[in-house]
Specification:
This protein is of the alpha/beta class. It folds into two domains: 195 residues, Glycogen Phosphorylase B (Rossmann fold), CATH 3.40.50; 179 residues, 3-Layer(aba) Sandwich (Rossmann fold), CATH 3.40.50. It contains 14 helices and 13 strands. The protein is globular. The strands form two sheets. Strands 3-2-1-4-5-6-7 form a seven-stranded parallel sheet, with helices on both faces. It has a six-stranded parallel sheet with strand order 10-9-8-11-12-13, with helices on both faces.
Length: 387
Amino acid sequence: MRIAVVGNGRTVHAFVRGGALAARGHTVRLVTAGPVLEAQGIEVRTRPLPGNPVSAALAARGFLRDIWSFRPDVLHVHYAGNKLSTMALVSGVHPLVVTVMGGDVQPEQHLGGLARLERRATRRLLEEADLILAKSEALRPEILAFGPFESKVETVRWGVDPERFRPRPDEAAVLRAGLGLADDDRVILSPRLLRPLYNIHLLVEALPLVLAQVPRAVLLLSEHRAEAAYREALGARVKDLGLGDRVRFIGRIEHKDMPAFYSLAEVSVNLPFSDGLPQSLFEAMACGTPSLLGRLPWYAEVVTDGEHVLLADLERSAVADSLVRMLTDEPMRRALADAGRRRVLEVACLPREAERVEGFYERLLAGPRRRPAWGPRVIDGLSLALR
């Protein structure tokens, strides 16, 4: 099967999912724009991000050519709310599969609000899709807010490859030395993007309360796709609080190195004010690293508070209390780690999910092919100039 994948080349999602399908013997091409991460097992076609209307038109033509020349059996779009997804829609290729990831349908994740044209673009993609894959059951109502699409929604969590994400104590020891951490440093890891949505500042504010009871605690902050102003504000706050080397800004972590970072950490922390089912949660669970999560309803479909993870209210003292509890109660931490790894193998095992997606593709290919009308596609293309 020939599968064209459209997604952001600066994030791992499309690469990991495309790679899982390639591992099942399919030929996969990722079509994107702008910088891309290193890819293994799949072909990548990208174009420079356009800087003016002429270069935008040329990039669009090249993007469509990269899809059409591949002659895909299936076109699979990961994330339903950006210009790449609209370009995929303009291609007219069917069957068209869309994976909804959270921020594309959850308006509260857009701090300035979701623009009307962006909402229209998302609705059009969901409308034209032959199949919509939701990252969680909790995203179904968000999808249905765009239209009556229930009959074509399936839940696919994707998850992680347990052969890749597993406890790696030897690599963690090498990493500890490389970061200059002492043997008795108690590592807390924040793996999410350094942006306001993820409440990294709340974690920084909680750290002095943690240090009062666990003086060797140290917080590692990933700087992947950091928002510059937010990074600067966090740095200033770390200085104001006198946290010194108890907070480490560690740059962008390569995806291949994430298992070592999770294995180094005693706690992984996710505190966004809105979320789907984050990949970082599944990765930490697979590596046997207990997770502290903000008390959001979406997590309940895969984890239970006190059994697989700990939940905390999105408030400084609550976060600090939970972190102290996790760092000082070793039996509980071990129980969370063991239960978490078992749970992720049950609900978010990437090879098994890829096999399910393959079955969905086969079902679509066995049915009649849609022939999309040119008129709406032209309007979709023209709308790009206004976004």
